[in-house]
Amino acid sequence: MTETASGDVQGKSRLTFADVVPDAGIPRAGKLSGNPYLPEVATVVQIIQETPAIKTFRVRFDDPEVQRNFSFRPGQVGQLGVFGVGEATFAITSRPSEKEFIQFSVMRAGEVTKAIHNLSEGDKVGVRAPMGRGFPVEEWKGKKILYVMGGIGSAALKATIEYTLEHRADYAGISILYGATAPQNFTYQYDIVEWQKRDDIDLRLTIDRECDGWQCDVGLVPAVLERMAPSPENTIAITCGPPIMIKFALLSFKKLGFTPEQTYTTLEKRMKCGIGICGRCNVGPKYVCVDGPVFSLAELNELPDEL
Amino acid sequence: MATKFLAQEQLPALLEALAQGARVVTPVKSDGVVQFELWSPGTEVELDVLLAKQSPKEWVFPQCETYLRFDYTMAPPAEGAEGEAALPHETVHLRTTNEAPRQVIFGLRPCDARGFVQMDQVFGGYGGFYFDPLYNARREATTLFAVTCREPRSTCFCTAVGGCPAGQEGVDALFTEIDGGFLVEVLTAKGEAALAGVATAGGAGIAAPTGVTAGAVTGGALLDATEAQVAQAAEVKMAASAKVEPPFTLEGIRDNLHDNFADSRWHDLCMRCISCGTCTYVCPNCYCFNINDALVETKGERYRTWDNCFNPQYTEETSGHNPRAHKANRFRNRFSHKFWYYPDKYDSLLCSGCGRCIMHCPTRIDIREVLRVMGTPVAATAEGKEA
Amino acid sequence: MSRQDHIREFAAAALAEGRVDYFIGWTTGFNSSEVIPAFVKDPAEVDRLLWNPLCHHNLVTFLKRNMPDPPDAKIGVCVKGCDSRTLVALLQEELVDKSRLYVVGVPCDGIVDRRRLEKEFSDEMVDIAFPEKGKVVVTTRSGVQREFDQQAVLLDVCTRCRYPNPVYADDTAGPAVPEPGREETEPDWGDLADYEALSDDEKQALLEKVYSTCVRCFACINVCPVCVCWDRCVNRSRQPELVSQKVEPKSNLLFQMVHMFHVAGRCPSCGACDRACPVEIPLYLLHRKMNKELYDMFGFEPGTKLGEKPVFQVFDLADRFGD
Amino acid sequence: MADVVNNEASAGKDRPVKIIGIVCNWCSYAGADTAGVGRYKQPANVRLIRVPCTGRIDPLFALKAFEKGADGVLISGCHPGDCHYSEGNYYARRKFELAERMIHHLGIPKERFKWTWVSASEGQRWQQVVTEFVAAVEKLGPREGRAL
Description:
The complex is a heterotetramer of chains A (307), B (387), C (323) and D (148). Chain A has seven helices and 15 strands.
């Protein structure tokens, strides 16, 4: 890109969305029309207590029109907010084919999440979704998908797992390695039971320390990953979880021969507007809320090291 | 577009005519401090002091702006529900608020106007992302009448970033001070529309200035400019440009900032920085903001306020991790955003060279020096001069 | 030997002997009408350090909380009389580790109010020279030159200064300057007179006008040496939300009162906040008033006696306040 | 700026004055209780905030109350020497003295801020303090504070 100092913007025609962003086909909240800051009012229809610290909220838009036309790409996020307290960004964890509700899994951590955890069924929330760039699931057709997740990281990958399971035939294989600190800290246990019944998924659960009555693996996720030693051949590896786990999981992938192009992760940054304007979630020139939060390791390696 | 001449004593009349259809904002000096204020007949427009303390950014992108109001109506507790359930809300009613009054900003400088052009790209969805209706409503309703700088300061470096003391980027009409008044170059349709109202309506109390020989009188304050006046204006512009010494070259600045990202001299350069945020709040280009909610019983609002990357909690995550905990990282982010991150997305620079950040920094951090040291290739830099 | 040479000598010695990792002083800014803080690490560079009536920065602010870089650095610092009082205020509460400091005191004849000089010209000042004692010569970019009497253009706090000689220093740069007799004379609170003469409504109107210009940039709080919460300031907290993030006169004034009450009894009115404010809000109306009341209540002047605790961290049974 | 949320409710000239009382738990709160139990008639304009000790009261609480639209602030605690924590009120009285002077300095009339000592048994005194203070504030009427 030559350094055009004057940057004569005057003559530049108003760019439309499609001709600039390569993956422009992604549905985005308030895209170029309407007010992207205005949340859609939604009602909490169901609350599931996943673990002592994590609840899953199923919300339905009050406007049936919006609910019917709502679609999102696995891996996209949304802003769930309580009017009067604030908004925060969460991965959308419902099945992309689900038309009745949208689902967010929220770990109680700060002021907004505490307010969300105080909600009860029938309460009103504000939703601005979908946002961000999801996983390029179409490109992965015909490949094996390896999900490596820990703790609340399962929320970021849940929608993608559901999508790949619904289109199981398109993918050469699906294996899931899910780690948690203790047995009761696994989210989506009702889904895990279903996954265990299926023979076309290689599901491995692990907990950090030995615990009586636990038959599956024991050990930290990166260690178990290296024991599994999955072959990188024709495989896409996705990892999400606490930052420390992601760091070591990425090292393990490298050790196992995974190239940066076939390794993906999501970044957790402080976000406010969620639409690439307020400027705070940048890692180098990229904004995590619109250019991410999903990045391939190749993309991350190009960014300056300020994670 | 048209080139007119406005006599000096006709300026108040012109502003008054403009004030019929829009609010007029001009630099006003009150006890020594020059700021952009709402003009009213009788207020003296301050054009001698080159730059107001703050850029007129605030008039298009207010520092504190409520954009959403909501009212809860409480649902009666369901029968048999003991005690008050956690805030069972029956309905929440949203009202978006966005006043965008027609306004004319007179007396800003070309670097201020260029600041708006850079912000237009972010808020106008140029990068193909999102269109900000709040900012754009005001921006559409704003007409910018810039005045050419006659006495650039030593802290001005607009020519180094592609601007110039008579820059026309984002300017609807450029006024250049010449003998006896202003040469008015109308540059855009918006400028012409605003001034048309003045010329034809004759404006209350605007009389054709007596004793002005050149050019046909068009019945309003704006006369057709003569060649002599145009030539004199060109001279003024040339003289002004000559006074600005470009302190650094843009050549390869983006790649050098990329290579120098982990350089230890960022620490030396920011030793005297107190990480306050003055530089971003006086800057015509900085646009970062924060969003907050307020709630009193059942009535609440969501408002956005200016924010800046020097705020230690700007990037602090809920887990407590802060990628830019040390002020050197925040310091680096400001300059990298202006000369590397923003150009990557919008193909122009997020700096118009006004120099306010140098003038108003409590310890005079100098952006030109930072870019001289950090904008040059790693190998070729002389030993970084200690600030 | 001028004070400037003393400073350079002390700095060179401290750096050469490795007693300090870096030495903080003042140096010329981007033109000779500006003075900026200087951080010298190499003994050969001490000639950049200077001393003249433009050295208004209170360098003690670079010793607080997260400012030392590296955090455990041994630092040499120049302090004027008022700066030394802020240092004493920090030392009284052990907020700064004395063993890591080497303090060079600089007796001061008063600092020039650069902003007032700036308002004398519409053109830009490019040089401010001090050809002889008590004379200030300003040159602007278009070559205009004017002379001023130094006493006439001093900072307001300097005209009322009672501690021109540093209260605490390891070495002193040059001879002490004559001090006003502190026992005989009362402090001069003249700068508050016309504000205090206003009626309640006039005060409220004035404060509203002044605090509607505040942009909440935190320059006053970050430049203040005794305001040490740094990145945990309650002015930014949402839990509890003491000060609303809305930018309006009410919240801006409460924002400043948080600053003022947190430094009450530790702030000696050095004026660094007044000089740092980009929109020139008269903060002296608050911190000077506080010091006046503290003097009236206890005869207490902040940051003067090293062994003493700040006035709000102790109590005295003999206090006669309240009915 | 557009109408401020938290002051919408406090606008209007003829509404009753709103007074915030910050009282220490061991003496003045108990004193207010005694006054209540003893059926001592007193105006109902005062909203009490209970704190463990006057030493806990930060002068900014009073300023925050004024900023939120209070028309008067009354602070009360144990008499010096009676403090449950033995020295809380010694520290506090210094802070309140400075707070009082600074509040008046900001242009808030003297009569709108009062601090005093009321012990647990002085129900009568509490009634008198409250009645006098409310009368004084009512004389000034609801506060149309501008700067704070």
